[in-house]
Amino acid sequence: MTSAPRVTTIDSHQHFWRLSRGDYGWLDDSVKPLVRDFMPEDLEPLLRRAGIDRTVLVQAAATEAETEFLLDIAARTPFVAGVVGWLDMDSDGFPERLAHHRANPHLVGLRPMLQGLDDDAFILRPRVLDNLRRVADTGLAFDILTFPRHLPHVAEALERVPGLRAVVDHLSKPSIASGALDPWRADIAAIAAFPNVCCKVSGMVTEAKADWALADLEPYVDHVAACFGADRLLFGSDWPVATLAASYGEVAHAARVLLGRRFGVDDMAKVFGGNAARFYGLAV
């Protein structure tokens, strides 16, 4: 009997950083266990143990130097399938910088750090919307890093840039610790109504209580599974940020168990690899 071909598994969301670069303003004593270097040699054995083949490396600093740092890592790290970088989306120089970095085959997406900006409606600024249209024209992906309060602004931006291919990071960070589902539940459903938008099943454990259990995460996973379906969900570890609350293996296990209650083998292969490869255009 011929066995089915092995499907490439992909972690759609992980980070690296080197502190000496000096542009990680959010790395302070509030997240003290993270205030050290995290590089490919730290992650590689964890991937092997969890059965993950490739990753998407996502920016963790709001500088163009960060994008260049990550692209350099991708060029020499076989398991990194692509990079989601950062460019200044509210800059007149954005088109030139986009064209410059778009030439690098490792760049598969862009992410402004919307969650940390003073202006909750940043994504609706005229120049940002113009630049989002440029991103849409290139076919690059757009990662949406938000808290639930940002989602109505994001929905309006998606309405105004209909060609944008986007993915919601970390379920938009609902308050899992409190168990609150609303208004996140309706707002995430509104985002899911855009057929070109996906959602990463990632970042949950750091939004949960310190003594979290699978049951705490389940209502949130069930909701995005119902809204987005098996074709528009991507597994992501959010390593090493997730290590504040869980090991890499625990994060992967939680996602496999909770999603495995809803989806069969073929759909799980999509969530744990196929969808990320298609969405980001990865050569895997």
From TrEMBL:
Keywords: Hydrolase. InterPro entries: Amidohydro-rel (IPR006680), Metal_Hydrolase (IPR032466), Metallo-dep_Lactonases (IPR052350). The keyword Metal-binding does not apply. One of its GO terms (molecular function) is hydrolase activity. Pfam families: Amidohydro_2 (PF04909). Residues 10-282 form the Amidohydrolase-related domain. Signal peptide: none annotated. The keyword Hydrolase applies. Belongs to the metallo-dependent hydrolases superfamily. This is Amidohydrolase. It comes from Aureimonas flava. The lineage of its organism: Bacteria, Pseudomonadati, Pseudomonadota, Alphaproteobacteria, Hyphomicrobiales.
